[in-house]
Amino acid sequence: MKFYLFGHGSIGSRHLKNLTELGHQETTSQAEADGFLICNPTAYHLETALKITRYNKPIFIEKPISHNLNGLDKLTGKILVGYCLHFDQSLKFFKQKIAGKKIIKVTIVCRSWLPDWHPDKDYRQSYSAKKDLGGGVLLDLSHEIDYALWFFGPVKKVTAKLQMAPELQIETESIADLNLDFVSGVNAKIYLSFASHKNERYCEVVTDSGTLRWDYQPNNDMYLAEIKHFIDVCQGKAKPLVTVSDGINILKVIEAAKNQ
């Protein structure tokens, strides 16, 4: 199969490498593409997707689906949103372990030091650091919001404290402290930061039968599984596991946090 790729940064290059290893190829002709991957800066996701819907081919949009909610109702067709943790085997196992238990407390943490993400580049020029490109810790680290909604369902109330990190010299928020109340009755505290010299990513759930913890371990297997799923979508063998509606619900939480 042939795929047209928008954006050849770190995540775009990873997806392309995985596609190639699976025996597929990149095409420079949009008309010849069997599917499209949108991996350019977040602020360009929607306009890019709308330009290619005329081909009526499946579209993969890297997370987040966009930088705000404007115009997302115009998206149609088979669209997979790139929240890759849905394909992480350890997180899926963790989800199964907490299912059916009475949940008392949920703590989700994802923190790191932005300059370390791509040491060979000036992080201050990256999309993560630019408001007009859709940067900021809420959008960039929205995987944690995604799996909280995946685990616990719709959110009824969001409270948040957002902070800048002067030492980073960037224009976007660098720290987000979220408190989510879910319709299911669960409360989750989510701490996101790319202004921390401590690098950790975990979810801790206290239940009536004990405390369970998941720690993220970097791996390519989930990205490979994600791309295999997108190929199945392109071949008509599967429906998108993470939908436009899911992407919108995540953005609604982010917008609620930003508007406080």
UniProtKB/TrEMBL annotation:
Coiled coil ranges: none
Presence of keyword Repeat: no
A single GO cellular-component term on record: cytoplasm
GO molecular function: oxidoreductase activity
Domain GFO/IDH/MocA-like oxidoreductase: from-to ranges: 96-213
UniProt entry keywords in alphabetical sequence: Oxidoreductase
One of the GO BP terms on file: NADPH regeneration
Name of this protein: GFO/IDH/MocA-like oxidoreductase domain-containing protein
